[in-house]
Amino acid sequence: MTENNKETQAELKERLTDEEYAVTQNAATERPFSGKYDDWWDDGIFVDVVDGTPLFSSTDKYDAGCGWPSFTRPIDDHNLVEEADYKLLRERTEVRSKMLIPSWTCFDDGPTDQGGLRYCINSAALRFVPKADMEAEGYGKYLQLFDN
């Protein structure tokens, strides 16, 4: 799907689960430790549940202990939009997909040896594509992320 071919809200509501819809369309937040991908360690990539944009690789996922999937960096910075968020006592960066879905936050308390950032994501905003399925689903160019 492209930005010019967006699904209507009714179509999204029908396709997404209630939680996926609430998180991606109404800026809801999952309860900590409740999301499917918090403790998910298979090889593959995480894509935007709404439009399939590749967002994060399992190679950059780590256990931050916060209760939400956390990553040290996105697959491609160009797939994200960042803006300052002052809702909490400290400044943080709200990160959105190109579809402007407000589903995660970027903090500066990530592993210092990997850049120091922590992208904290709601599982409901993501769909996991296993490494074995990436080529068939059109994400073959990202298989290089798993070359060690």
Automatic annotation (TrEMBL):
Which GO BP terms sit in this record? protein repair; response to oxidative stress
Q: What is its EC number?
A: 1.8.4.12
Q: Which UniProt keywords apply?
A: Oxidoreductase
Q: Which Gene3D superfamilies does this UniProt record tie to the protein? A: Peptide methionine sulfoxide reductase
Tell me the InterPro entries matching this sequence. Met_Sox_Rdtase_MsrB (IPR028427), Met_Sox_Rdtase_MsrB_dom (IPR002579), Mss4-like_sf (IPR011057)
Signal peptide position in this chain?
Answer: none
- Mind listing the GO molecular function terms for this protein? peptide-methionine (R)-S-oxide reductase activity
Catalytic reaction(s) noted: L-methionyl-[protein] + [thioredoxin]-disulfide + H2O = L-methionyl-(R)-S-oxide-[protein] + [thioredoxin]-dithiol
Limits of the MsrB domain: 9-131
This protein's GO CC annotations: cytoplasm
Q: What is this protein called?
A: peptide-methionine (R)-S-oxide reductase
